[in-house]
Amino acid sequence: MLVKTKGIVVSYIRYKESSIIVRIFTRELGLKAYIVNGVRSSNAKTKMGFYQPLTLLDLVVYNKENVGLNRISEVKLGRAYHKIPFDFLRSGIAMFMAEVLSRSVYEGYQNEDLFDFLVEALIVLDDEQAVLSHYPNVFLWGMARYLGFAPDVAAEFFEELREDFTKQMDWGPEMAYLDSLIVEDFAYADKISVQVRRNLLDHLLVFFSKHLDQPAEWKSVKVLRQMMA
What we know:
InterPro entries: ARFGAP/RecO, DNA_rep/recomb_RecO_N, NA-bd_OB-fold, RecO, RecO_C. By secondary structure, this protein is of the alpha+beta class.
């Protein structure tokens, strides 16, 4: 059966001499894996650029039940980025987003609200007026909200976090900062110290790892923390 859908590329791996297996988070079908034959050859009809992480695509795909790898019938660019590929900070944030997405969704997982949030977040990141200093923290909180494990207010978040610490911690500045982010979302533009922003990022990553049951180190965070200066 052919299905028309929109998709966000999560990742790909090389397959044989000129093909790839690409994981795409689609709006209608959730996370799916597709084999794309010959895309790495010099005379390929479809370019590899379509399958870079976080590329927005318009798709017509084959959807067969109980099949591990489906195929793509038609593909075109859903939206071209104007800033993300050419800006070092935006590219670093996008790399971080791709890792978070890859670790948050699983094969067949469908969540249209999460998909719409991701599209909105990518459009914001590509906007010249985006407030990048707060972006990673706002993005993580939004992901937690649409994945269903974010509490309503910052106090509840830090109360849950406190269970993992053996001594009393003073999280006043981080709590006030998170409360502001929850209210203003990507529009938040106040100046916050680098240390408070980094602290909240670390707390959110601990929170994510706990809820996703994935204790492995976040590979893109080291570079991201340096960018948050």
